[in-house]
Amino acid sequence: VRVDPLDGASAYFDGVPFAFVSARFPPRMLFTLAHECGHLVAHHNPTESFAVIDETTDEEGPSNPKRTNEERYANAFASALLMPRASVGIARKKVREMAKITQDVVGG
Q: Dmax of the chain from CA atoms?
């Protein structure tokens, strides 16, 4: 789907899930797809039709107070899906080693 300023959309129609992803930002497409899957998972009653349309705004950012809990959940879902906890631990360990940081200084 290529529509500005659409990033992605998801919907249930007649019990069938749909996810649409914009081709505007190729490096972000996988995250956007995972984000839309988060919306589908959060709306766990597929017997009710619904749709979510995610647009790019000038107010992007995880700390934006206007961001809804639904959007925060979809972002967290996408992050957890794409970056498993074990991978974060491995990356953190490598950063500590490269920066010569002890575990006492940064994280557990």
A: 56
Tokens of 104: 């006492």
Instruction: Let me know if 6 is exposed, middle or buried by CB neighbors in 10 A (0-12, 13-18, 19+).
Output: middle
Q: How is residue 26 written in tokens? A: 């190729």
Q: What is the pTM of this model?
A: 0.68
- Reported as a single tens digit per residue, the pLDDT across 61-73 is 555 555 688 899 9
Query: Does 40 or 100 have the greater pLDDT score?
Result: 40
Pairing of strands 16-21, 50-55: unpaired
CB proximity list for 72: less than 8 A, separation 6 or greater = 62
